[in-house]
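S1.2 Input.
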Amino acid sequence: MTLPLINKKSQAAVEYLQNYGFAILIVLILGVALWKIGVFNIAPKANVAVGFKTIKVLEPSIRYKGTAGLLSQYEAVTNNLNFTIVNTGGNYIHDLTLIVGGDCNYSITSAGTTLCSGTSFEKTILGPSETTSVGHICCYSYSRGDPFWVEINITYSERIGGRKVQKSEHGIIKGFVE
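S1.3 Output.
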């Protein structure tokens, strides 16, 4: 016995919906999940540092204005980049040097040579998991809420097998002026 033509058409329509409906549903669920975790957001909601490996940059910020009573001395200065670096490697690092580009152009060495007065490392030798503050890096004139983008090259040396080995890291700090 053969089925009427109308039953064959409805069966084809149901099969079509089953095959392609699930694929469309999965794409929609994936799109909503990516949207919720912020993949489609162009601007970061917080200041971030990306690209660093052995030396990590923590808490990067450029403060528009500060109050000396509430903030440390270098944070109270307008339009200065401040952050902390941490040695996540297994060896001591020496001879730290930073070269900063993008919205803040200048360099700082462990000897204290800078193009911006008052800038220096808190510590110049870092053991594993040790941190040092880097502050008072002069940047261009900003207003609160302005986006910034700073490129940082960090060079340092490690003693490996009795030899001093030069290494470098490159990363970007981006965010908005607080």
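S1.4 Remarks. Residues 115 and 122 are 17 Å apart (CA to CA).
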